[in-house]
Specification:
Largest sheet: 3 strands, antiparallel
Radius of gyration: 15 Å
Oligomer: single chain
Order of helices and strands: HEHEEEHE
Number of strands: 5
Length: 85
């Protein structure tokens, strides 16, 4: 949607640390010819460093392990990935 809104002369930056989600977004970008869209493989944070991201119950879900969501079952089952901040 944002790539369509800014048009071919604009720029869209998307930040997605989860490799599977980012790969799907890149495939979608390429399929639609959105050359104005850049996918950045980092999590946005007020800190610099690394953090653990836990995948959710489907490919499009995930959160920082320190997010305190209280969903212990999801945290135990999800794929854990170290991502740059």
């Amino acid at each position: 949607l944002m790539a369509r809104c800014v048009g071919p002369q604009g720029r869209v930056f998307s930040f997605e640390p989860m490799p599977g989600i980012r790969a799907s977004a890149e495939a979608n970008r390429d399929l639609n010819g959105f050359t104005q869209m850049e996918l950045v493989g980092v999590a946005v944070s007020s800190s610099i460093g690394m953090a653990e991201v836990v995948g959710g119950h489907h490919e499009g879900a995930g959160h920082l392990a320190t997010a305190g969501r209280g969903n212990r079952g999801e945290t135990k089952l999800g794929q854990k990935v170290q991502v740059p901040l």
